[in-house]
Amino acid sequence: MNIKQLLAEKVTAAMVAAGLPADTNPAISISTKPQFGDYQANGVMGAAKKLKTNPRELATKVVEQLDLNGIANKVELAGPGFINIHLDEKWLSAQLTTIANDAHSGVTQRKTPQNVVVDYSAPNLAKEMHVGHLRSTIIGDAVVRALEFRGDNVIRQNHMGDWGTQFGMLLAHLSDKLQANEVAETALADLEAFYREAKIRFDEEEGFADRARDYVVKLQSGDDGCARLWQQFIDISIAHSEEIYNKLNVTLTRKDIMGESAYNDDLPKVIKALMAKNIAVEDQGAKVVFIEEMANKDGEPSVFIVQKSGGGYLYATTDLSACRYRSNELNADRIIIFTDARQSLHFKQVEVVARKAGFLPESVRYDHCPFGMMMGDDGKPFKTRTGGTIKLAELLDEAVVRAKDVIKEKNPDYTDEKLTEIAEKVGIGAVKFADLSKNRTSDYIFNWKTMLSFEGATAPYLQYAYSRIQSIFAKAALSPETLNTACNIVEPQEKALALKLLQLEDVIDAVINDCTPNLLCNYLYELASLYMSFYEACPILKDGIKPEIKAARLALCAQISYVLKQGLEILGIDVMERM
Ligand code: ARG
């Protein structure tokens, strides 16, 4: 269900009937104030300017032709040529009843689903996941779920960093530990510490760096023993990431992993293809693409190294290979990649080169979606007090502990078990919502207090709104699922809610198109806030409320709670019946 689209069709038909070209943009938008109606068509002004006619007169003609019979109960002309549309409550009630009976709440399912490859999370397995990977993981997962909700076919790709020279020192160090009879799981229990130890040995211990380099060579030449050691390391590190995915309630699984190493065999072929097409050239022993299309203001081309002078391949080579694989093997219609903004230049270069080389056909949409950084209260990149990187696992544990305190204060009589259960949902939800609700490309300040507040746009606020609606049903001894009454919109608060509920498809489409889960966060917050005002103004279970009004209001509540739940589910945030 998409009201905007429906109105666009109707207004376009009227514009054509009034003599305007069929491609005139009707410019439908949601009205900002109730006195301007529910929707506005603002396209007449632009059309009149083009035709050099009086907009007001043109708008009058369009309104005369506009047939919104049964849909709107008032259409007004305002200002220089705005058309204000007031939707009819009966019509809204009927639409709402229809979407209330739809599993996707009126979000129509794609008739021709797209194959969308989404590259997200992608931690480096040499180290533990840190807060920098939080954003990629949760923003990516929200977009993935929104795409699936709309009916697209998503192929998740976890492009993990599981290859590179740093593995030489790690494997040398691991080999020594195993020699000393340590078990790999224990040795790698703290990857961060393990990495530090290996690095210190690499920098300081006589002969260790050479052994590390030997391991790199062995790894690259496919030495069996070395491959086994590497596999052991990778498996344990992946298990660390999986633990985080579980905690975070994200949908990534092992079968989504397509790490850098998976492209190894293809890298020489990528170089060969680039050389054959004269896209890459030899430069001081290295193979380089000079990208003229991305020249700087002095006309110097952007330099993109695809093979080092020693023959080694780079992050860039792997990403070119990934482009080809995703277009050719995965049949991607669209590729979306989530990393922090510092990699923007890299992905622009990858795209330009991949297109030139024919690895990425013009028909495939390629979106690198950068995001800003998470900052501490001091406005500097989020670090531990001593300046170290904050481990994601620890941050999430802290979230649960803090949420537990907050819940306990509100409900001192809850058992510890119940508190823990709620705190897990609230704590993790709070961290995720705080992040997802921010404009993707800006940096943001991480603040425990605001994210765990029950006021404002937070997960606890939305979870609380949901559980409040559930408690109404509990009190009425009804289940929202079995409710089978029609909606009936009468009061302005009800109308506002109906309009909001009917706008879900629009929001999902914007989230999918721009990769901006924050729009869904805003939407859910607005929905919950409208519910709170409705609840104040329109009694439901109070004595003296006519049974049919009560039934219609309950039907409205049921749909609100359903959408809150579905929306939060897309964000990967759990709700609960009581909190
Ligand atoms: N492993 C990289 C990092 O931690 C992110 C990989 C993103 N995906 C890609 N195709 N390069 O920064």
Describe the structure.
There is one protein chain. By secondary structure, the chain is α/β, with parallel strands linked by helices. Among the domains are: 3-87, Gyrase A, domain 2; 166-256, no CATH class; 392-570, Isoleucyl-tRNA Synthetase, Domain 1, CATH 1.10.730. Helix content is 52%, strand content 11%. It has 21 helices and 13 strands. The chain has helices at 3-17, 43-51, 55-65, 89-100, 131-150, 166-179, 184-187, 191-204, 208-220, 224-248, 267-276, 315-328, 344-357, 392-410, 416-436, 448-451, 459-475, 492-501, 504-514, 517-537, 547-570, and strands spanning 28-30, 39-41, 72-78, 82-87, 115-119, 153-157, 281-283, 286-291, 302-307, 334-340, 365-371, 374-375, 444-445. The strands form four sheets. A four-stranded antiparallel beta sheet has the order 1-2-4-3. A four-stranded parallel beta sheet has the order 6-5-10-11. Helix 6 (166-179) crosses helix 8 (191-204). Arginine (ARG) binds at residues 119, 122-124, 159, 161, 319, 322, 337, 339. Arginine is lined by residues 119, 122-124, 159, 161, 319, 322, 337, 339.
